């Protein structure tokens, strides 16, 4: 398997409190997001924190998707990392929409290319 | 909980084949790395691919650690993301050493700060 991958780091703000605090909703959303991007799901682990917040991961054959949600701040920190021909932005945008994010920033970082990666990063921001 | 976090993206090259292909060694290394950084381990999931390669995650109270290894390329793609006062570079360096990486690049990206993050990223490369 080739090492090259695309890693989308997404900062999702102004999300809906109830969605950010619903571990079942988030797990379903993440599995759906992986499938929509064409990934093969291998492992699914989500954890609900007290009093609020969810962390979780979907390990896919092509790398992973993760989330850490902070309902009290309307914020979710997500990563979508894919190898091969998949497009991680499909999953990241699906998740942003599902969580009702009103402001998001997505940064794409190439992985497994050899040289330092940050110079190649692409930033997109929209409100 | 505050949203601010530190996310280290590490590209580890010239690692030892046998270590990159040993799911039990990698799992133990990642749990130890999390503990050395002072994290609280919540979930541990590692997956061995055929014919080779390991993917896995340690979810910590303070975010996560992940790996995707490509033994045939001597390459491991790792992420160490921590919130709070933890220093993710402690875990990332521990992992790089454990895998016998001869060349690594680590990029730190601030998370949960609000504005676009890439301009703040710090790159360190060493051979």
Automatic annotation (TrEMBL), chains A, B:
Q: Could you state one GO cellular component term attached to this entry?
A: cytosol
Claim: S-adenosyl-L-methionine is one of the keywords in the record: yes
UniProt site (Cleavage (non-hydrolytic)): 62-63
Q: Name one GO molecular function term.
A: adenosylmethionine decarboxylase activity
Q: What is its EC number?
A: 4.1.1.50
| Signal peptide span | none
- Cofactor binding notes: Binds 1 pyruvoyl group covalently per subunit.
BP-aspect Gene Ontology terms: spermidine biosynthetic process
Instruction: Give the cofactors, semicolon-separated.
Output: pyruvate
Keyword set includes Lyase: yes
Q: Which Pfam families match?
A: AdoMet_dc
Reactions listed under catalytic activity: S-adenosyl-L-methionine + H(+) = S-adenosyl 3-(methylsulfanyl)propylamine + CO2
**Pathway(s):** Amine and polyamine biosynthesis; S-adenosylmethioninamine biosynthesis; S-adenosylmethioninamine from S-adenosyl-L-methionine: step 1/1
Q: Which residues form the active site?
A: 63, 68, 83
The Pyruvic acid (Ser) modification is found at 63
Keywords attached to this Swiss-Prot or TrEMBL record, sorted alphabetically, are: Autocatalytic cleavage, Decarboxylase, Lyase, Polyamine biosynthesis, Pyruvate, S-adenosyl-L-methionine, Schiff base, Spermidine biosynthesis, Zymogen
* InterPro entries to which the protein is assigned, alphabetical: AdoMetDC_C, AdoMetDC_fam_prok, AdoMetDC_N, S-AdoMet_deCO2ase_core, S-AdoMet_deCOase_pro-enz
How would you classify this enzyme at the top EC level? lyase
| PTM annotation, UniProt | Is synthesized initially as an inactive proenzyme. Formation of the active enzyme involves a self-maturation process in which the active site pyruvoyl group is generated from an internal serine residue via an autocatalytic post-translational modification. Two non-identical subunits are generated from the proenzyme in this reaction, and the pyruvate is formed at the N-terminus of the alpha chain, which is derived from the carboxyl end of the proenzyme.
**Family listed:** Belongs to the prokaryotic AdoMetDC family. Type 1 subfamily.
Q: What does this protein do?
A: Catalyzes the decarboxylation of S-adenosylmethionine to S-adenosylmethioninamine (dcAdoMet), the propylamine donor required for the synthesis of the polyamines spermine and spermidine from the diamine putrescine.
Q: How does it assemble?
A: Heterotetramer of two alpha and two beta chains arranged as a dimer of alpha/beta heterodimers.
Write the protein's name.
Answer: S-adenosylmethionine decarboxylase proenzyme
């Amino acid at each position: 398997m080739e090492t090259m991958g695309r890693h989308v780091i997404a900062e999702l703000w102004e999300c809906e409190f109830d969605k950010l605090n619903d571990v079942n909703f988030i797990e379903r959303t993440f599995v759906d997001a992986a499938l929509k991007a064409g990934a093969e799901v291998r492992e699914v682990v989500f954890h609900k924190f007290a009093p609020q917040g969810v962390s979780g991961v979907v390990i896919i054959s092509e790398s992973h998707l993760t989330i850490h949600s902070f309902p009290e701040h309307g914020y979710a920190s997500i990563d979508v990392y894919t190898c091969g021909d998949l497009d991680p932005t499909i999953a990241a945008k699906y998740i942003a929409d599902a969580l009702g994010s009103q402001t998001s920033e997505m940064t794409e970082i190439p992985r497994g290319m050899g040289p330092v990666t940050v110079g190649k990063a692409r930033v997109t921001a929209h409100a």
